[in-house]
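Quick one: structure for this chain?
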Amino acid sequence: DRYSQIGGKSPLLGWTEKLLNGLKDNSVNGSEPFFSSVNYAFRYTTPLISHSIELLNKQEIDEVTLLPLFPHYAKAMSGSIAIEAEKAASRFNTKLRILPAWGLHAKVIALQSKYIAEAIAKVEAEAHVLFVAHGIPQRSVDRGEDYPIRVADTARAISHSLPETVSWSHAFQSRIGPVKWTEPYIEDEIKLHAAKDKTLVLVPISFAADCLETLYDLDLVAADLAREAGYRHIIRVRTFNDDPEFAKILLQIASDQ
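Got it. Here's what it folds into:
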């Protein structure tokens, strides 16, 4: 039902293929490519990580650089990807290099700051910027994960580019089930800063591309809640999607490591 409200399917395959094309277009440094092949895989649907590594092995590619597209590390996200990739790499005798989380990379922060500046350029009302990341169960944090800290660090880094008149905070979205998830929850932050003469600027910072969590959870659910809370306007800042500049940054991250 939720997918039917955002076009009937997930847009992730389309955005991933477009990003891949951008990576290929920018993968040449001088006359030599950074990488002999640029491919993609998904954790829970085809092409699976194991299948992609197997295909690379058949092409006699025995060294793979893995770049998880989650900006911040969490065991259930990038950690899960790494485990699957390590299993496949071991099976096919592939040398695997896993790149660290890139959410705090200076050029990533600069690009997201640019998106926000473009979004609020014509805002005349008082604005509150709400940085939003996907939550994780609090029990994972209690066991030692620093994911919420990295999310807060990213929000703080981007906030330095905001006009002094713009307030900001961060929150977590998309919690599931009755257990406690990372706080503050997006619903609480939306209500906390609501005012009839204020614009709410939603900034997704844990998604490389538009997906159910941005198109449904933010554009529909969060926006409706914000309207009910009394905001004058609601703006949702874009994700990276197939921005050529984002492709260039990812290639730089991969080649610099």
